[in-house]
Design brief:
Elements (H helix, E strand, L loop, with lengths): L11 H11 L6 E7 L5 E6 L13 E3 L2 H12 L2 H11 L1 H19 L20 H11 L5 H9 L17 H5 L2
Antiparallel strand pairs: 1-2, 2-3
């Protein structure tokens, strides 16, 4: 299995969009790992260590506020608990999730090894954060993270209304009030 994955350099427009999406300056931003169908970044690749040296094990960070909100609804509706229960009951699913964990660690280790730091999102034995799993699925592509793929499939098309932030980095609300 190749751990090469297409990422794009971060342009100034991407940086402004991500800052507007997050409502803060992004930390450890390395690359755009996935773009929303609207064209804006929706997942970024972050450095395994922040600028101050703090370990940051989340390699793929979901930035789109619409997608993040919808994923929060899935979490509140019990998807994480249900998926964790299925991991204990379904050896094939557990094996696929273990492979997703190994993929995530290998991709992160290709940048910098974080000794003693686990994967992210609860991998490999539980589901702790669907945002991380969906970010991994979007960045790595379908078939790499079965539970991320499952959560992604449960989401409506969050991009249908158009970009979540404007090209100049302002949010929808700021643009509507202009």
């Amino acid at each position: 299995m190749s751990h090469d994955h297409p990422t794009a350099p971060v342009s100034e427009a991407d940086r402004a969009a991500v800052e507007a999406q997050l409502g803060r300056v992004p930390r450890g931003l390395r690359a755009v790992a996935h773009r929303c169908p609207c064209g804006l970044p929706d997942v970024v690749e972050t450095a395994p260590r922040l600028e101050d040296g703090t370990p940051f094990p989340t390699l793929y960070y979901l930035t789109c506020p619409r997608a993040a909100s919808l994923i929060g609804t899935l979490e509140a509706d019990g998807m994480m608990k249900e998926q964790t229960a299925r991991l204990a009951e379904d050896p094939e699913l557990a094996a696929g999730y273990q492979k997703a964990h190994e993929d995530y660690i290998a991709r992160r280790d290709a940048i910098e090894v974080l000794e003693g730091f686990p994967s992210a999102g609860g991998m490999p034995d539980r589901v702790k954060c669907l945002h991380v799993l969906v970010g991994h699925s979007l960045a790595a592509g379908p078939g790499v993270n079965p539970l991320g793929d499952e959560a992604l499939a449960a989401l409506p098309d969050w991009w249908r209304k158009g970009p979540c932030v404007c090209a100049d980095g302002t949010t929808e609300a700021e643009d509507e009030n202009a």
